[in-house]
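S1.2 Input.
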Amino acid sequence: MLFNSLEFVAFFLGVYCLYLVLTHRWQNRMLLVASYVFYGAWDWRFLSLIWLSTIIDYFCGAKIHEAQDARKRKLFLYLSLATNLLLLGFFKYFNFFSASFQELSAILGFSVQPNFLRIVLPVGISFYTFQTMSYTIDIYRYKLRPAVNFFDFALFVAYFPQLVAGPIERAKQLLPQIENPRTITLEKISEGMYLILWGYVLKVFVADNIAGIADDIFLSKAFCNGAFLPLGLYAFAIQIFGDFAGYSNIARGLAKCMGIDLMVNFNLPYCAKNPQDFWRRWHISLSTWLKDYLYVSLGGNKRGRFLTYRNLFITMVLGGLWHGAAWTFVLWGVYHGVGLAIHRSLQPFLTRVPEFKNAVVRHVWSGFRMLCCFHFVCFGWLIFRAESLSHLKRLVAILTGNFHFGSGFGLKDTLLRIILYSLPVIVMQFFQYRGNDLMVARKLNPVAKAILYNIFLALIIFFGNYGGNEFIYFQF
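S1.3 Output.
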């Protein structure tokens, strides 16, 4: 059941009407059932995985809290982590590791025929397993008390607005909002409707329209020359932002209409000035999860420079692998790990660079840094978007050694279409960055706000792409 479908709109309206008339306890029970219906609409068999993760983590969380012996606490923590990682590893990585083992054996001169399973990747499994693992880890670290009511905890795991593509919520932030009565105000509904509206613009107008351009350039040999490929990278950069940020905004908006606040998952990532700044702004719920539960657990930056770089590198490689079972995602993690390490090593020199006193020069310098970081990220998207390592090799060869403008393939037309579909993002982010406020549009006067909202509606209704495109991050 896709957010960008009439089926979901009807589903949510029915759920919300019931939500408004029920008491807190029955709101939670109804939302739990609705969340299972929402998830089961893809494949009801995968509900068993959510139930298994929910039962194990609820049990382990309670046992970790009760146990006085350190070994018992570790035992139940490891049971929780093992369950979730085995679920994730089996369904997402079994065939990948089998194929990799077969290729490695062939290189070493051995003939191995491993078993390959016909496994369908359960949608959202990377998100809800990380969410439940953070629950038991926080209890183990004495940062959280376990949930008292099993059904409230089950709703925390399966809450449908953010179930299949995040944000990856922490129990200490979301669980109290589930356990306690919520207040719905006109202000929250207004904020929620704005987030939903802007989220749909990002998805159906920006991402889904520009997706065709990116696909044509990356997958069509006719477009594969050095002049077109950068346009494909820009198109994909806008597509993946519009797609993922669009989902996150819709999820936050739906939740806010119910009186629940979900975390901001994107904060102007293409306005970042360095790789570290980018990861503070892009997929914030994942980057902070990796930092708090992986990087810190490895030792963080407290054991010397070499181990700090090692921990940073491991974190980013595993973060890349989280995105998908392919060597391109591993390489993407390596790329960003190297970028972060280089930036960190240059920090002592960068901090000595004096600030420019002239405001114009300062803004130009800031813009130049943004432009450099954006292109660093875009080359990463080339790795991310490639179908395979061999496809990536061909794309890099085209980008570096086949630069020509070609003829008859509409370079100018392609550029104009990219600008057209990117314009709402560029304009909105300019004002958001300038005002240092993601909700700056809501502070317009009533007339300007009404005009803007009607423009959003026109973009969605008249120019939106309703081809039924799934959100990119559903596959992760």
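S1.4 Remarks. The first helix runs from residue 6 to 21.
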